[in-house]
Amino acid sequence: MEIVINLMGGLALFLYGMQMMSGGLEAAAGDRMKSILEKLTTNRFVGILLGCVVTMIIQSSSATTVMVVGFVNAQMMTLRQAVWVIMGANIGTTITGQLIALDIGAIAPLIAFLGVAMVLFLKGETKRQIGEIIAGLGILFLGMNMMSSAMVPLRHSDAFINMVSSFSNPLIGILVGAGFTALIQSSSASVGVMQALALSGIVDLHTAVYVLFGQNIGTCITAVLASIGASREAKQTTIIHLSFNIIGTIIFTLICMSTPLTDWVISWTPTNAPKQIANMHTLFNVCTTILLIPFGYKLADFAEKILPSEPEKKKDGLLYLQPLPKSNKLIGANAINVYQVSDEIIHMMDVAYENVQDASKQLISYSSDRCDLILDREKQVNKLNEAISEYITTAISTPNINANVSQALGAFYLSLVHLERISDYSVNISKQAQKQAENKLSTKDLDMILHMSEMTMHSKDYIYDLDAIKQNTKKLHSLIHLWRKEQIEEIKDNAMDSETGIMMSRVFNDFLRINDHAEDIAEQFDSIEINLHENEIEQEPVPAQ
């Protein structure tokens, strides 16, 4: 019983250390993940390197793959870009085994102490996040040492040794490796357990080799679970991950059964059993990656054939807002949240300003059909406001949220009210136009409306330039002030009836309010410290007038 308790405790520390490392990376770089991925996944070799490096940092190919599933689900990464990151993740996960074989665990307490000291005593958020990654690494190896110590008594258990000896059967070994890894959702941890058994003298590479291959299949379960409820493209990503490891397992199982590959790997480090397991694990993933690089796009085609993509659907005016993958291993949630919310904010802005444009047209030439369109868009804006608000409320409570991301989501949340009010004022303008549908406006009044409309639409183009939008709003306030004076004179001279004067005064107010709300949105966007321009409206800014 004591063996089981110590083994479970060591495994818990191992997995917690990996979770700490993932959390530290998420907090340190989560908001920059999208730009990093876009720059580095355009080339297959650089994409493989990226997947390898990220996995080396967090010591978990499962976490990297779940991140990729999340990015594909949010349409931040294409399926063909995902192929290379997944291949790199499979190479990066072998680093854990190599570090264990080097017996770096001997200094694990020092590593853990250094990381905790950085978290507790260093100033600066980034330094503390790096400290969290280092502390996680130390705790990971403390757990590994605990597992190794717990297994020492098992070398004297005939029942356990007889059970382990059955692993040399390829089918049993693969099933055991896949099942155990699927249970704990970490190939690094399950490989570490095999190394602990090898260090205790219970298994050798001949016994462990097929279990090792099965562990590469079992690690896919995390991504499979994360893709439940996600898009078809996200599920296709898990098919690629599974295909990669199944193909590699078939190839290496046949090679080990028909050639002395296992003896050859043992000969590299004949006195170091944990190193032999680490070397076979590395050889498996590196060779499988090299073999499949020419067929990367074929893997994507195969996934699309097995699970065809569905046509894009728009529901209630929403574009994406895909839920985050259901996994506690998810890194990149910060990047997904910022990308999806900013994309939806822009979509909501487009809809609101379509109403502004159509409301201006109503004043010039009223149409009941156009009025219906404006009311439909107003309902769409309200639904977007509700859906995005709910998403932000959930996203802002994400664990390890980056400070910049938290600030950005807060700014987006405050912007929603202003966008919703812009659409409301457009409806008001349309109602005013309906009241005056029978009255013909003068050429001068029509010119005023056209001018106000143009300047108001400029505010959308200036949404990322606070100085420009302030200048535009100030000029509109000055012009409306002059127009009001002219109207008073026209009413005095009976050149304008009172009803038209009241209608124009209300329209002036509505246009001013729209521009004021646009300026408030620009102030929110100006406060955001991360780059949003990659999701900017695709219109050239109109020069300030």
Total strands: the figure is 0
Alpha-beta classification? mainly alpha
What is the H/E string?
HHHHHHHHHHHHHHHHHHHHHHH
Largest sheet: none
Q: Beta fraction of the residues?
A: under 5%
Total count of helical runs of at least 4 residues? 23
Q: Write down the overall mean pLDDT.
A: 84
Poorly predicted residue ranges: 534-545
Q: Output the radius of gyration.
A: 31 Å
Shape: elongated
Distance linking N and C termini: 80 Å
Write the layout of secondary structure elements.
Layout: H1 2-29, H2 33-40, H3 44-58, H4 61-73, H5 79-92, H6 94-101, H7 108-121, H8 125-151, H9 158-165, H10 170-184, H11 187-199, H12 205-218, H13 221-226, H14 232-258, H15 261-268, H16 273-292, H17 296-306, H18 333-364, H19 368-395, H20 403-435, H21 443-461, H22 466-492, H23 498-527
Summarize the structure.
With 545 residues, the protein is mainly alpha-helical. It contains 23 helices and no strands. The longest helix is centred in the C-terminal third of the chain and has 33 residues, at 403-435.
Describe the structure.
The chain is mainly alpha-helical and about 550 residues long. Helix content is about 75%, strand content about 0%. The chain has helices at about 1-30, 35-40, 45-60, 60-75, 80-90, 95-100, 110-120, 125-150, 160-165, 170-185, 185-200, 205-220, 220-225, 230-260, 260-270, 275-290, 295-305, 335-365, 370-395, 405-435, 445-460, 465-490, 500-525. It is elongated. The N and C termini lie far apart (about 80 Å). Residues about 535-545 have low confidence and may be disordered. This is Na/Pi cotransporter family protein. It comes from Absicoccus intestinalis. Keywords: Cell membrane, Membrane, Transmembrane, Transmembrane helix. It is a multi-pass membrane protein.
